[in-house]
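Objective 1.3, modelling of assemblies. Example input:
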Amino acid sequence: MISIAIDGPAGAGKSTIAKSVAESLGFIHVDTGALYRAIAFYLIKNNIKNAEDINKALKSINIKISFEDKCQAVILNGDDITDLIRIPDVTLLVSEVSKLKEVRKFLLSIQQNIISENNVVMDGRDIGTVILPKANVKIFLTASPECRAKRRYLQLQNSGINCNYDEILKDVNLRDIADTTREIAPLKKAPDAILVDTSSLSLDESIQKIIEIISNKLHS
Ligand code: CDP
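Predicted structure (tokens):
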């Protein structure tokens, strides 16, 4: 199986770029952030707050991801929650949830099952470091916080979600701190990952650049 790992902070464009790259390679695209978001969504729905209760709640959570038409759908206990996991409440909580050891352990096996059966482009925070340490190609995608916040703002506006740029920038900065400083599987560039800063690149230019890096690596 061939695997491509794409890691980076919030709003670096990972998911959009990974999806497009996967399409061009004929691989499936796995957005691992959606798994953490699904857990955060469940906890909000069921008003579960403390770590001990969260660990207990994992026993009642069944998450599946399906790839109809190569598009990822997230199924939580039988319900399709693909769109619901993007709401701001989930975004606010998700980094708190993703730092918990039991949560990461719970989601590890879901990710490993997918990798063992498919050629993947997988994006997240710990893909090149923990989930796919032997990935054929590793990319670390980044951009300035302002640039990432602006992109996220436009993305939410375009999908009809009401939002405020300053709040998004605050969230981006807070999540950067939470994701890079947590004890388990923090966001960091794997030593063998290629760093790509997309601050001054358009989406199309970023996609072209990543495809170029991948094909050079796969054919070297
Ligand atoms: O798309 P966005 O950058 O907003 O974030 P995401 O990829 O949906 O991930 C949401 C959150 O899940 C991140 O801020 C991390 O706290 C967590 N996450 C993680 O810990 N490990 C991953 N492999 C993917 C996401």
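The pocket of cytidine-5'-diphosphate is lined by residues 10-11, 15, 32-33, 36-37, 94-95, 98, 124-127, 175, 179 (CB under 6 Å).
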